[in-house]
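Figure 3 (text version): structure tokens given as input.
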């Protein structure tokens, strides 16, 4: 099922997600719904926080044809290098706002997958950018938090406008 995505500056986006104790049917359904919601929203990632479910769960799919969804349960992301790289980020919770954010170039991801198998890999590029962006969501951080006050105000105004237009479209 498609889940509603919270929009900035909704305070629920600031909730800290809890660890998942058991990958039960409820979590399995949430994973399926989040993947469906991510594809529908044309995203490459989605954190459970964004759909108002405050558990440590991230889904991502960087493939062209939306055929390779990845699931990260109770993820831990550790920078492997000091060097940071800027990337023009967007966010499904801050529609139509894109801006440069600097993040560590290479990170280690430790997590469980949907079968409870452990994941432990070193990534860079868009995968590293996206997993750090999603991890921030689980910690109540949104990419606009890294921008200037002025840009944050502009982002709030922009989201308000986009939501009004979407409301009219019904
Ligand atoms: O809000 C989210 O978490 C999803 C977000 C993930 C993300 C994309 C790009 C950089 C950082 C984080 C998106 O999928 S935004 C939409 C998108 O597909 C995209 C936007 C900018 C660059 C590449 C992809
Ligand atoms: Zn986001």
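Below: residues designed for each position.
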């Amino acid at each position: 099922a498609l889940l509603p995505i919270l929009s900035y500056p909704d305070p629920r986006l600031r909730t800290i997600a809890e660890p998942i104790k058991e990958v039960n049917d409820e979590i399995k359904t949430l994973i399926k719904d989040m993947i469906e919601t991510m594809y529908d929203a044309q995203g490459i990632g989605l954190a459970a926080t964004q759909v108002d479910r405050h558990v440590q769960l991230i889904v991502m799919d960087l493939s062209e044809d939306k055929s390779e969804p990845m699931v990260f349960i109770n993820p831990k992301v550790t920078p492997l290098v000091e060097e940071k790289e800027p990337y023009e980020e967007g966010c499904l919770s801050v529609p139509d706002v894109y801006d440069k954010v600097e993040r560590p170039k290479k990170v280690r991801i430790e997590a469980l997958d949907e079968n409870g198998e452990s994941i432990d890999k070193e990534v860079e590029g868009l995968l590293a950018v996206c997993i750090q962006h999603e991890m921030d969501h689980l910690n109540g951080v949104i990419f606009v938090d890294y921008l200037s006050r002025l840009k944050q105000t502009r982002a709030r105004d922009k989201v308000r406008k986009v939501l009004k237009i979407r409301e009219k479209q019904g």
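The beta strands are 45-47, 57-60, 70-79, 84-89, 99-104, 106-112, 118-124.
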